[in-house]
Automatic annotation (TrEMBL):
<protein>
    <submittedName>
        <fullName>LOW QUALITY PROTEIN: trafficking protein particle complex subunit 8</fullName>
    </submittedName>
</protein>
<dbReference type="GO" id="GO:1990072">
    <property type="term" value="C:TRAPPIII protein complex"/>
</dbReference>
<dbReference type="InterPro" id="IPR058540">
    <property type="entry name" value="Ig_TPPC8_3rd"/>
</dbReference>
<dbReference type="InterPro" id="IPR058541">
    <property type="entry name" value="Ig_TPPC8_1st"/>
</dbReference>
<dbReference type="Pfam" id="PF24546">
    <property type="entry name" value="Ig_TPPC8_3rd"/>
</dbReference>
<feature type="domain" description="TPPC8 C-terminal Ig-like">
    <location>
        <begin position="1335"/>
        <end position="1436"/>
    </location>
</feature>
<dbReference type="InterPro" id="IPR011990">
    <property type="entry name" value="TPR-like_helical_dom_sf"/>
</dbReference>
<dbReference type="Pfam" id="PF24545">
    <property type="entry name" value="Ig_TPPC8_1st"/>
</dbReference>
<dbReference type="InterPro" id="IPR057651">
    <property type="entry name" value="Ig_TPPC8_C"/>
</dbReference>
<dbReference type="Pfam" id="PF24544">
    <property type="entry name" value="Ig_TPPC8_2nd"/>
</dbReference>
<dbReference type="InterPro" id="IPR024420">
    <property type="entry name" value="TRAPP_III_complex_Trs85"/>
</dbReference>
<dbReference type="Pfam" id="PF24542">
    <property type="entry name" value="Ig_TPPC8_C"/>
</dbReference>
<feature type="domain" description="TPPC8 first Ig-like">
    <location>
        <begin position="705"/>
        <end position="943"/>
    </location>
</feature>
<dbReference type="Pfam" id="PF12739">
    <property type="entry name" value="TRAPPC-Trs85"/>
</dbReference>
<feature type="domain" description="TPPC8 second Ig-like">
    <location>
        <begin position="944"/>
        <end position="1081"/>
    </location>
</feature>
<feature type="domain" description="TPPC8 third Ig-like">
    <location>
        <begin position="1084"/>
        <end position="1291"/>
    </location>
</feature>
<dbReference type="InterPro" id="IPR058538">
    <property type="entry name" value="Ig_TPPC8_2nd"/>
</dbReference>
Length: 1461
């Protein structure tokens, strides 16, 4: 239970106090009425005694009576019988008491930490204490106990009466009549011989003091000095000392009596059973009362109209109430209501002391002695009977009429409590004595009497009496000083059960429970107290149930181990019952306290219920802001409610919201629905791309439909860097920022993005509907703030206002769609009229702004109308437009984007800090050019190496001229615009170019054995060999509104498959100095490349001896073999390939002529066919190559068909140079990455140098820098039409004897290498034998046939000349060995009858490029065919140390035929 102001002992003592009745003469009533009070009210603040009283118990022991309080009430008679319930008026009073006592604003709250809960709630519950106090005062008096029966009666007469003694006599007779006539069941009197105490009231301001003293003396003679008193009051008049502030101790006792009086008046006059504040019917039938426990108001007694602490409930009070109390009561209530704070106006502080003294005199000299005397009398009666045995005692009672006689019928069941004792029954005398002892704090004697009475009652089955005795026995046991015995809680439990179940008296049961719970709480037994309180809740009274459940909740939280969830659960139950009882504020408070436990703990359904209730209660209590907050919680959390429930929540929310907005029209409120994923917001700057128009295909650029890809973004940024560097003389400026047209959560948003005036800004906002019901959004638009840079001079006033001042469109949007034109001259805001979100749907809305001025724009949020989709439709069907409007609210949501977490400094790492995200804060810059690019006749599929001509169109769609048009690409070898020097003049208007060749051709007739035609070209003519190309447009500028079309040659990639090819077009404004230095446009194409031809080429030295092979130019030749295979798969519909021409390009070599057999004029290849071509290549004259510049290339064309293609012009030359460049760069990359790191030799440095020397010598010797271009045509049948495709393949021959291919080799996966833990010694540098074996070229010269007469001469000697040519530029040591070493059977077979004679081993040294001839002799023993190519030649560079020689490659077999003559 909650903490109370009083201690438990004070509370229990004050629950049972001696009762004193008051009867006043009319004159006396008039005297007190001056103070706005009646006599009982006048005494009330002074009823607690400040000093100790004493009485003697029957054993003559003195007992101290401390802190005693008496209760003084006017006599109100009532003829009704006792009821077990409170009257509707009393119930209404209790309801009002609780309603009027609310928690104070800023009251002290206690914070309890239980586990991981931090709960903040009020530790005290004053409304419960007020209810309890009021309940205990309105307890109806009953016959089974005497505690609230009157012990004494004050008879009050004014000294101004003519004969005061006569008035006293009248009043005395009146009291006797009320008590003994039997007409009235109420009020009830304790003892037949009630103490009468005579009070003479003297008004000092009016009356004659001497007369008063005289009358008082007479009274003392007549009634004894112990039985009368002269009370002087009203020392002050209104006229005098008006300004003196006299305290008003009455207000705290009377503040509730206004209600009280009014209710009882209602009851008396109308007997109305209606209860305000929607108390349920069940409550009206039987409402529960409450305890009282207020430190200040603990002596608050019943209001003046109530006779005992409770007149019997529901009864009509007698109309002839004594001294017309009723009318006075009505006057009281009016006067109290009228003159608040004016009580006791005629009293001085001395008068207060007089009253206090009077109460003390009355109690100590009148009341306590009277009680002591009665205790003695009762004790004597009881002791005199104790001599008799119990059985005899019972028998005599039956015989002499002391029993329960006529009331008890034989057929009555044992369980009833209808058994009644007559007033003089001995059991009741014991009870009466116990009650008297209890009232004067003699708890030990009271306990023994209650205990005795309890046994008697139980044996008689008088359950109501027994329950009362049990209850008071338990309380007496608790209150005994020094606690000689433990508190018997089971007594209380039995009493409660009996009252409730047997006697059906909830009022007594409730009193019992309130006392017991307070006692249990004081002993720390919170669990038992909570159980008891929860048992007392029932359907008959919501108010009682609510208060008790709330106290039970406080018990759970105050336990040693607080039970937080039980606290919350019972708070919810209490809130529910408060709500039913019409106590909305208390209900709201309970729900709010419980919410602390359930919030954000995963109890989503409980949270929803609580929030919904809080919302409703707040709304009815006119706290719409709190209501909105609560409903917002329900709707924003991911609710697990059903769709219908969510729909109900939403409708309720919209209704509440509507009322809030009605109050506050100026700024738009924040709406909780739908959820906005702020970080997913994307911002797009510029126009959305146009789609293809007819044949034209627009550049893809960037659109909101594309997914963002980090790698792609890096690639585009790299391309843009290349373009910017090309435009800035090869340097990327320090302030370079890559262009970002579309910003999202992954882009770099630390800087303000730049937007261009008169170009739209599109914001894509992601909405999520968390509910299972559809939402209808309408009039959806962006909310912005704009600060202008400088205003146009034409509009002077607005200009001044605009510069530097932020303008927003919120007010415009708040009013709806009607007036949206107002701010359109600054920024045009587009509105989406209808936006529908299905249940749990996530959907994007694209909202546009069009800025018309330069400045800083901040996109703040979105504004829209929110409605439930279904409700709108239903309302439309039934009642037209009006009802729809009711459920539509207009509001906004802010777009708050949190930037990336900072992680740079130590502070950043320690704390959680976020950087800015400025994607919604663009700077609007002045006009910039805007270009669109269209592609015509652009293919989607090509054969590998196929050349195709397409067209590209550039349009300037802005109002500013553009210049410096460039393009960069990820595949620069895929396309070319041609260069001005080499571009053939082709018509610009594209026609259906089925047979128009993309190449520049000359008609020729091929002569057999004709020599290649040569052209010398400088590589600088093809100036655009870097990855950035300048686009050749006239005047290097494109005017506003103009467009230009250019040819574009494409070449299919060499590798088959789908290729993603990216173009980035770059252009600048002709007006410099803008924040945007340039703009770019992206285009991505996918090309599917299918296989065409495979070309393999190899070169070998001609075996013709040098002096024979000298051609007209006097240079030795090299043979070039080209294998061409058709590897095309039949799907692409290619019928056959024709090899039209083979060209070469090199700085040092050229193809000289074709040495194929002459009949193979045209080379056709159908599927999987292969052709072999053979050419002679010769070295160019050194002069010719280096005459103008080193970078001159010789193109040599050998055409196999009827027309010659000029390979040095566009597009053939462009693609040749582009492919060379890319392959070279790849080779460089491989070389740089492929060097093993551990290739340093252990030897000394010179050996390394030497090795590298030798390597270069050897490489030079075998170097051949010849590039072959194979040009082909393919015949394709498509849609019954034959198309001719053409293309070219490139092969780069680098070394003699090494095969090269046009197919790019597939990368092989690296083999796994075993881990080695010991570093191995690096092997010494060994030059590859393959390269060393090319140092010396050998030729044998001999007659092809030789005839010898073997008959005459058995030995045939044939002279053979061996010529050795040093191919390198270094001296070479050569060893020639003629001895046979071969052991293979074939070689033995061939060589068995042939041998070299003469010197069989030679050691020679050849100078660089020297040719040496040796004459050898071969000896044959018989005729036959012999292979003379058996000499083994070893060579090594002369400078190389002791390294072994390398066997030189020998030419093909040299066969000789020996004939017998």
């Amino acid at each position: 239970m909650a903490q109370c102001v009083q201690s438990v002992q004070e509370f229990v003592q004050d629950s049972f106090v001696p009762m004193v009745a008051v009867l006043c003469s009319e004159e006396a009533e008039r005297v007190t009425r001056k103070n706005n009070l009646n006599f009982a009210e006048l005494l009330r603040p002074f009823c607690r005694l400040t000093s100790e009283g004493h009485i003697r118990d029957p054993n003559n022991q003195v007992q101290a009576v401390k802190n005693l309080r008496i209760c003084v009430n006017n006599v109100v008679t009532s003829p009704n019988t006792v009821s077990a319930a409170l009257s509707p008026a009393q119930r209404r009073l209790l309801n009002e008491v609780v309603l009027s006592c609310q928690p104070q604003e800023g009251a002290v709250t206690s914070v309890i930490t239980a586990g991981d809960y931090d709960l903040n709630f009020s530790a005290t519950t004053p409304w419960f204490e007020a209810y309890r106090e009021s309940f205990l005062q309105s307890m109806p008096a009953s016959d089974h106990e005497f505690l609230n029966h009157y012990l004494a009666c004050l008879l009050v007469v004014s000294s101004t009466e003519a004969v005061p003694v006569e008035q006293f006599l009248k009043l005395s007779q009146e009291q006797h009549r009320i008590q003994h006539s039997g007409e009235y069941t109420n009020p009830k009197w304790f003892i037949p011989n009630t103490l009468k105490y005579y009070v003479l009231l003297h008004d000092i301001s009016e009356g004659d003091e001497q007369r008063a003293d005289t009358v008082y003396e007479d009274m003392k003679q007549r009634y004894g000095s112990q039985g009368c008193y002269l009370l002087k009051i009203n020392s002050r008049t209104f006229s005098t000392e008006d300004d003196e502030q006299i305290p008003d101790p009455w207000s705290q006792y009377l503040h509730r009596n206004i209600l009280h009086n009014q209710d009882i008046l209602d009851d008396l006059t109308v007997n109305s059973a209606a209860v305000e504040n929607s108390i349920s019917a069940a409550e009206v039938d039987c409402h529960h009362p409450t305890e009282k426990a207020d430190g200040l108001s603990n002596s608050l007694e019943n209001h003046p109209l109530q006779l005992d602490t409770a007149s019997s409930p529901g009864s009509l009070h007698t109309a002839s109430a004594v001294n017309t109390d009723l009318k006075k009561g009505a006057r009281d209530s009016e006067s109290i209501a009228g003159g608040a704070g004016s009580h006791g106006a005629c009293l001085t502080l001395n008068d207060h002391d007089h009253i206090r003294q009077f109460i003390q005199e009355f109690t100590f000299r009148g009341l306590l002695p009277h009680i002591e005397k009665n205790i003695r009398q009762l004790n004597d009666q009881l002791v005199s009977r104790k001599g008799l045995s119990r059985s005899l005692f019972t028998a005599t009672k039956k015989w002499f009429g002391g029993g329960k006689g006529p009331e008890k019928s034989i057929t009555e069941p044992k369980s009833t409590c209808g058994l009644l004792y007559p007033p003089e029954a001995p059991e009741l005398q014991i009870r009466k004595m116990a009650d008297l002892c209890f009232l004067v704090q003699h708890y030990e004697l009271a306990y023994s009497c209650y205990h005795t009475a309890k046994k008697d009652f139980l044996s008689d089955q008088a359950m109501l009496y027994a329950a009362g005795a049990l209850e008071m026995a338990a309380v007496s046991a608790f209150l005994q000083a020094g606690a000689p015995r433990p508190y018997p809680a089971h007594y209380m439990d039995t009493a409660i059960q009996t009252y409730r179940d047997v006697c059906k008296n909830m009022v007594l049961a409730e009193r019992c429970a309130l006392l017991s719970a307070e006692i249990l709480k004081s002993q720390g037994k919170y669990s038992e107290a909570a159980t008891l309180l929860i048992k007392m809740t029932s359907e008959d009274s919501d108010l009682r149930s609510a208060l008790l459940l709330e106290q039970a909740a406080h018990c759970f939280i105050n336990m040693r181990n607080p039970m937080v969830r039980k606290f919350a659960f019972h708070m919810i139950l209490a809130g529910h019952r408060f709500s039913k009882a019409g106590q909305r504020k208390h209900a709201l408070r309970c729900y709010c306290q419980a919410m602390q436990v359930y919030k954000e703990r995963g109890w989503s359904l409980a949270e929803d219920h609580i929030n919904f209730t809080i919302g409703r209660q707040s709304f009815t209590l006119r706290q719409p802001e709190n209501a909105v907050t609560a409903f917002r919680q329900i709707l924003t959390n991911d609710s697990r409610q059903t769709a219908t429930q969510q729909g109900a929540f939403l409708r309720e929310y919209l209704y509440v919201y509507k009322s809030v907005i009605g109050v506050n029209e100026v700024s738009l409120p924040q709406l909780p629905l739908p959820c906005i994923h702020s970080s997913a917001t994307r911002v797009y700057f510029g126009h959305e791309r146009r789609l293809a128009e007819g044949e034209k295909q627009a550049a893809t650029h960037v659109s909101l439909d594309q997914e963002y890809d980090q790698d792609l973004a890096a690639m585009w940024c790299h391309l843009e860097e290349q373009l910017v560097a090309a435009a800035n003389r090869g340097i990327v400026p320090a302030n370079f920022q890559p262009t970002q047209c579309c910003l999202n959560s992954q882009t770099d948003n630390l800087r303000h993005p730049l937007a261009v005036v008169e170009e739209p800004i599109i914001v894509e906002v992601t909405f999520r509907n968390p509910l299972k019901v559809s939402l209808a959004l309408s009039n959806l638009s962006l909310l912005w703030k704009f600060t202008a840079d400088d205003a146009p001079p034409s509009k002077e006033k607005t200009a001044e206002k605009l510069a530097g001042e932020a303008i927003t469109n919120e007010e415009t949007l708040a009013l709806g769609v009607g007036n949206m034109t107002q701010k359109d001259d600054i920024v045009t805001t587009e509105t989406i009229l209808d936006f529908h979100l299905g249940p749990e749907e996530t959907k994007m809305a694209r909202l546009r702004l069009l800025p018309h001025r330069t400045g800083q724009l901040n996109i703040v949020g979105v504004v829209y109308n929110l409605a439930e989709a279904s409700s709108g439709e239903m309302a439309l069907n039934s009642d037209g437009q009006q009802t729809v409007d009711l459920m539509v609210v207009r509001g906004k949501q802010d777009l708050m984007i949190r930037g990336p977490r900072l992680n740079q400094t130590k502070e950043d790492k320690m704390l959680v800090r976020h950087g800015p995200d400025r994607r919604l804060d663009p700077i609007i810059t002045p006009s910039m050019p805007l270009m669109e690019v269209f592609f015509l006749q652009f293919p989607t599929a090509l054969l590998c190496g196929e050349i195709r001509k397409a067209y590209v169109e550039f349009c300037n769609v802005s109002s500013v001229a553009l210049c410096s048009l460039r393009v960069a690409s990820t595949h620069p070898d895929f396309f070319t615009f041609g260069s001005k020097a080499t571009t053939p003049l082709t018509p610009l208007s594209p026609t259906s170019a089925e047979n128009c060749s993309a190449y520049k051709t000359l008609a020729t007739t091929p002569q057999p054995g004709s020599v290649a035609s040569e052209i010398l070209v400088s590589a600088e003519d093809f100036s655009q060999l870097s990855s950035v190309m300048e686009i050749p447009i006239d005047g290097n500028m494109l005017q506003p509104g103009k467009s230009i079309q250019l040819p574009l040659w494409l070449r299919g990639p060499d590798q088959e498959g789908v290729h993603e090819i990216n173009f980035l077009f770059y252009y600048e404004s002709t007006q410099k100095g803008n924040k945007l230095s340039h703009r770019v446009l992206r285009h991505t194409v996918f090309i599917c490349a299918s296989r065409s031809l495979s070309v393999q080429a190899s070169a070998s030295r001609s075996s013709v001896p040098p002096h024979h092979s000298l051609d007209d130019k006097g240079h030795g030749g090299t043979l070039v073999f080209i294998d061409v295979e058709n590897i095309n798969t039949s799907e692409s519909g290619v019928r056959e390939f024709h090899i039209v021409q083979v060209s070469s390009s090199s700085q040092h070599w050229r193809l000289h002529k074709c040495i194929n057999p002459a009949r193979d004029k045209d080379c056709k290849l159908t599927s999987r066919e292969r052709a072999k071509l053979c050419f002679r290549a010769t070295q160019c004259k050194p002069l010719q190559a280096s005459s103008d510049a080193v970078e001159k290339y010789i193109f040599a064309d050998l055409n196999l068909g009827n027309e010659r293609i000029i390979s040095s012009s566009t597009p053939c030359g462009d693609f040749f140079f582009r492919c060379c460049l890319t392959s070279e760069s790849q080779r460089v990359d491989v070389a740089s990455s492929g060097h093993p790191s551990s290739s340093k030799s252990q030897g000394s440095v010179p050996s390394e140098d030497r090795a590298s020397d030798i390597t270069s010598i050897v490489k030079k010797c075998n170097e051949l820098d010849l590039n072959i271009i194979v040009i082909w045509k393919a015949y394709v049948v498509e849609d019954n039409k034959q198309l001719i495709l053409e293309g070219q393949l490139h092969v780069a021959l680098q070394t003699i004897g090494k095969e090269a291919t046009s197919l790019t080799p597939k990368e092989e996966a690296q083999e796994m290498v075993l881990l080695k833990f010991k570093s191995e010694l690096p092997l010494p540098v060994v030059l590859p034998s393959a390269e060393l074996s090319q140092l010396i070229k050998t030729n044998l010269h001999y007659p092809e046939t030789y005839t010898h007469p073997f008959v005459q001469d058995s030995l045939c000697l044939v002279p053979v000349t061996l010529s050795l040519s040093n191919c390198s530029l270094a001296q070479v040591d050569v060893i020639i060995d003629l001895r046979h070493k071969s052991t293979s059977p074939e070689s033995l077979e061939v060589h068995n009858s042939f041998t070299w004679v003469g010197q069989t081993q030679y050691k020679l040294q050849l100078k660089p490029q020297e040719v040496l001839c040796l004459t050898l002799r071969a000896c044959f023993l018989q005729a036959g065919v012999y292979n003379l190519n058996t000499p083994r030649v070893f060579a090594k560079p002369a400078k190389q140390g002791a390294m072994c020689e390398t066997s030189q490659q020998t030419a093909s077999p040299a066969l000789i035929i020996i004939n017998n003559a």
